[in-house]
Amino acid sequence: MEFVIRISQFLLSLSLLIVLHELGHFIPAKLFKTKVEKFYLFFDIKFSLFKKKIGETVYGIGWLPLGGYVKIAGMIDESMDKEQMAQPPQPWEFRSKPAWQRLIIMLGGVTVNFILAYVIYVFLAFAYGDKTTKIESLKDGYWVENEFIQGLGFKTGDKILAVNDIKVINDYDVRSNIIGAETITIKRNGKEQIIDLPEDFLGQFTSAKSKDLFERRIPFMIGAVADSSLNKTFDIKAEDIITSIEGKPLRYFDQLDSLMTNYKSQTLSVELLRGDDTITRQLKVDENGKFGFQPAFDNDRFAELGYYDIAIQTYTFGESFGAGATDFVETLNKYGAQLKAIFNPSTGAYKGVGGFKAIYSIFPSVWSWQAFWVLTAFLSIMLGVLNLLPIPALDGGHVMFLLYEMISGRAPSEKFLERAQMVGFIILITLVLFANINDWI
User: Fold this and answer.
1) Burial bucket for residue 33 (CB in 10 Å: 0-12, 13-18, 19+)
2) Where is the Peptidase M50 domain (predicted)?
3) Which of 118, 129, 169, 299 is 20 to 30 A off residue 41, Cα-Cα?
4) How far apart are CA 191 and CA 155, in angstroms?
5) Are 237 and 262 found together in one domain?
6) How many domains are contained in the chain?
7) Residue-range definition of the domain harbouring residue 156
């Protein structure tokens, strides 16, 4: 079921982004009376799942969900339709239009991507507001479980004060500023100290076995009892919180392993918080020192119990436009910083480049419209930025040649554009293969 929910969100988001991106090309092309021969969701190599011709355009759905396209008459693109390009230019063709019109057509896709992301952020701000965890409310610091992060000098209980010279206010600030970070200022046992990060921190982190960074310290809330658990038939309910084992307090989940070291294959007296009541149960521990419980996470419940404070900012519909703009600009800047790090070999960030599996995995295992729209807005920005890269097979490549034409007054030859398109296509395929291979290694 988890796979079905994730793949459904992934395909819905991908389909929405592709259709709207291609509409960004389609609409100005039609406004400038340019013939659009095909409009496809997904690629139709060899055959289509569906197609129907309406007017002069064939609308269809391909079988390969790696993208989509519009085929505009008289345009050198991935179709490499040399037969059409060998004919005399026709007034309805892309190549016959003024350079400024062709530029608008080519920028239409990324423009729609950015507008879509902004609109989503506006409605997210209005519908959900902003919910943040104040860093100062994490009284006992962070949970550091990742061995790589521990090797850099971090310990459970460290409080993070700043990333580089940027003071962190909210829990989100730590992750959002980690790209390009050189130092992190922490407080440990009441004393401040600075931990230097290696230049290739992102590369090493990506290659590490664990992908945990700095996690909030939370209680052991029971989510489910494993079928193999010795406590399967006991009176244990989801959302019970373990507060004490054999009279020893257990405030945080990260304290469990050290507490259970001496209790393997025993029956223990365990205190549980169920709602507002504290109850006691005799629970069995297996030979590995485990109860056989799967942990759960409930942000609001943990805040209610005083583990941290959640600040909620609500917006009127009018205020949502400003809040949406702030979220859009921040996400755009952070993704730009991420791309900069990826293209800088010394950071090693390229090791973390992922493909479709990585995108699929970021969608939650339970359906959440808020998470769906947050991720769709981010992916829309990502798609827009990537399409602006000056690679001939992408929109940015076409824009680069059009700007050259408008500045110099001379258009590149069709032969040159065909060769550039082929080179760009090879580069693009190589990047796609690299990203998707990275998913599995």
Assistant:
1) exposed
2) 10-431
3) 118
4) 14
5) yes
6) 3
7) 135-216
Listed residues 295, 313, 334: the one ending a domain: 295
Q: What share of the chain is helix, strand, coil (3-state, %, to 5)?
A: 45, 25, 30
CA distance 208 to 348: 12
Distance between CA 216 and CA 213 in Å, rounded?
10
The reply to whether 151 and 265 lie within a common domain is no
Q: Is residue 351 one of the residues assigned to a domain? A: no
* Tokens encoding 269: 């007296």
Residue 283 belongs to a domain with what CATH number? Answer: 2.30.42.10
Decide if 319 is inside a domain. no
Domain shared by 66 and 12, yes or no: yes
Task: Please list the residues that pair with 196 across neighbouring strands.
Answer: 183
Choose the final residue of a domain: 193, 216, 239: 216
- Candidates 295, 174, 136; CA nearest to 225 is 295
CATH number for the domain harbouring residue 140:
2.30.42
